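This part of the workshop introduces the protein records we will be handling. A learned vocabulary of local backbone shapes supplies the integers on the structure line. Getting from the letters to the tokens is the skill we practise here. As an example, a complete record with its sequence and its structure tokens follows.
=====
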Amino acid sequence: MINMTNSTALATKLVREQIARKQAETLLEEKSMALFRANQELHQRAQKLTEQHEQLNLKVTELDESHAQLAQSEKMAAIGMLVASVAHEINNPVGFITSNLEMLADYRKHCLDILKLQEEITSPHITSEQTRMGLIQRLERMKKEVDFDYMQEETASLLEECLLGASRIRNIVTDLMSFTHPKDIEWQLVDINELLQKTVKLAFNEIKFQTDIQWDLGELDLIYSSEGRLGQAFLNLLMNAVHSIEHDGLITLSTCMTQEGDQKIAIIEISDNGNGIVEKDLALIFEPFYTTKKKGQGTGLGLHMVKSVVQNHAGKIEVKSTQGEGTSFRVLLPYKDIKNMKRI
């Protein structure tokens, strides 16, 4: 009886162990399967994240390219506004060069007639002194008619004017090219005062109908920078000032050098007495695509480009404006070696 009881207990224990083992195996299998599915799901998510990351990188690249294209478009739009102005500036010297050359062509004809008559006078074929004297008198009359002495002086003056006009055209074209080169990456020591004067000269024909320019240029050291990019930024600020003025305006361009600790800073300020900027817009004017101009008159990238240029020169830009009284943009550029900084 006791043996039978022990056998039954042993059998029951074995059954329980088998059931427990089976349950453990089932649980292990379920856990393994759940882990396998979790791994598969994790792998799929990782793959999806990789794809999304690649797509995001592609979008970032596309956005960078679009931004570069739009920035270039903004640059060309600013230049486009100056096309008529530059054409006028070039047409002026072209006009008087053409006029001078026409006059020089007439002078050349008179000189050739005089030389021909002088050769005739000195020709050995003329044996009669009376004939020779008649030719000399004719020569004197011819010189008097064309005012030969004045013509000699005027020829030198006309040639000098032609050379000055050609030099002026060359300078205008050089200035224009420095602003329109799409891949300007040349960094060098630049005279900021000279660059401001060049910028005003480039836009002068449009400026002169709107406003007067007041200069207050201080003494500045040469600063290592991209002349083309800085010139573009100054041009943009200058044209913004012009467009904010309706008539009888005044734009002031001032520069000075200051010291912050052991760091020298060049300060460039472009101020106008135009319409000013509404206070709510001041915090947004440097944002890309934000513009206060009428639809079709601006892309909203001009001031964003200006800020990018200044920041890539390790500088900063500040603005103060009162609606109806005018606006002042202040650019601060540090004197430091920025050869290895991010290019624009």
In short: The domain at 187-334 is CATH 3.30.565.10 (Heat Shock Protein 90).
